[in-house]
Amino acid sequence: MFGSTTNNLVFNGIGASAGIAVGKAYLLEREDSQVIEKRFLEPEEIGPEINRFREAAQKAGEHLREIIREIPDEYKDQSYILDAHMMILKDRLFHDGTIEEIKKRSINAEQALKIITDKATANFKKMPDPYFQERRADIIHVSNLILKNLLGTSHSPVSNIDKRVIIVAHDLSPVDTTQIQLEKVKALITEVGSPTSHTGIIARSLEIPAVLGLENATESIKTGDLIIVDGSTGVVIIDPDKETLAKYYKRKERLEAFQAQITRTSHLPAETTDGHRIAITANITVLEEIVSVIDHGGEGIGLYRTEFLYLSQSTLPSEEDLFDNYKDLAELMGERKVTIRTLDIGGDKFASSIQWADEMNPALGVRGIRFCLQSPKIFRAQLRAILRAARFGNIRIMFPMISQVEEVVQAKQMLDKAAESLDKEGIPFKRDIQIGAMIEVPSAVFMADILAGEVDFFSLGTNDLIQYSFAIDRVNKHVADLYQPLHPTVLRMIHHVVEAGRTAGIPVALCGEMGGDAINLPVLLGLELDSISMNPVSIPAIKEAIRRLSFEDSKILAQKAMKECCATDVRDLVFETCGKSFEMATFFQSNGA
Q1: Superfamily (CATH H level) for 43-151
Q2: Residues marked as catalytic
Q3: pTM of the entire predicted model
Q4: Strands 435-439 and 394-399: what pairing?
Q5: I need a surface site. Which of 372, 514, 565, 572 has the fewest CB within 10 A?
């Protein structure tokens, strides 16, 4: 969307990587615009067509391997994205499925590949979770690599850029982004994507400003246009006047000075002005994010989402696959605490390797711990892998979507059986492992005092807790305004769980997105949580904000906030009370960090 202000043309997209850039645009032409014609084959043409597809897929694999071998050092941390593309390329459903379509329908390879690509992306498209929605793009990018070989078109010209520019594109594939010469790129703008897309992830890891999801950008921006990119607010300005340029240059200088400051201190503890410390940890999905965790001062992993291994391939991961993954996680984190959440699948996340029953409302159906308890073989393999990996680091286990005490009891019984089976087989493992419950539905909140007697820690999953408390779909734009983390209802529930934990002598963490927004921090601090977990890149600003706050004042603020009637009143109270003590941190956080 866009509009004009004075002589400036202003676009509003999604701020995916914080920072401000001013420079000339460089427009990349779309490479997926080829028209794929459907051609029916004679029987004798089917064999040669299959061979043509196999050769094209083989060339795509060779191209990816070459890219991986030659990937620049600054992109090494993100090479896992290309590894995932290699997995898709080798996937039997993807590769063999295309061949089967050629045989079954007697059609050309290009059309067969399109059919399989559409099928493969259909499940991901249905998922409300933005991270898993973005995995559709990975399948499309792999498909395009093969398609280019089938059509005889060239690969990306990104590496040919030889001057300092702001790249404007419909989308950027991982191959595109790893071909970029970092010193030549000031910022990224794409028409599709989100903070969880590969472009968003890479932009943040390289600290390049990025605005994504900017509709019609390639039609409205021309190569050579002078533009301002504000990756903090998601604003792009074409042909800015002198006054606007001066304002943004000043803002850029201020933001960069703040970023430099918080980066220098990100490895220091998060300690308030009156000496209270709170642990700041990270939420991650893949191992490659560990570098970002450590670089940004994370004190541990507060949430390791284990779904990716199940969702990124067409077959279930074996116990050995899981063990290798968790062992690497433990060893990379060393003595730092690592919380592995068991499989939280169902609801908005579905694996093609699992047979799913149709449900009228998946969010209220078989998901999280419910799925695990109903799928003992799958759950047992994961539990065994976690117990085995626990020998190599400071691992603890957390059960998701707990709605009643019986679920924790049953899950612990299954953990005991997994340990017994390992013991009988003589496989080394660690049995003395902490067990936690994820509190993300109201019933768990109100039974927290009883649940506390069954576990060693609580972790509040505020994303779902808010959704279920207000009976809203958090990704439905028609009710998005009702998703209010600072609503007194939410604060009272957090307070109740913290009190139950304190009475039982167990720590309480928060791992929802709420923890990564500095505006929520004074109240969360005052609710006396033991730790807060968030996206790794949010950690420096959150730590900086904590160092500007008083713990005692925050406790008073939290008590007042819980007595308010709505989220707007709480937000006003936070600004009135804390004012400029954390002004820059909230600016940095709320604008896309």
Answers
A1: PtsI, HPr-binding domain (1.10.274.10)
A2: 198, 511
A3: 0.69
A4: parallel
A5: 565
